[in-house]
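Try it yourself: sequence plus zinc ion, in.
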Amino acid sequence: MAAIDDWFDERTLMELVPIEVYVRGASAVEAGAVRIITRTESQLLTSVEAGDDVVGSEWSMDGEQLTFACTCGDANERPCEHLIASALATWPGEAPDEEG
Ligand SMILES: [Zn+2]
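Structure, out:
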């Protein structure tokens, strides 16, 4: 069974979104905007600071299918910058882990 982390490598993420979305996500992580709420093999739930707002992002595995959602409303056909930021935040050393 595939783990959700398998999707969160740089190459896969860059194929999912346009480069400008990837770059905005990467800078959000660098700014410390991402908080990991839940992280399991099949789900990643985060909150991401977005200007004056905080949005909720979710990646999950539905069988072998990767699904995603974000309360910003931009994650329809493809992930938004908050989802990219969330995925990048799972990389070691990128964001504080609330469960740690
Ligand atoms: Zn979003």
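One thing you can check immediately is this: The chain has a mean pLDDT of 91.
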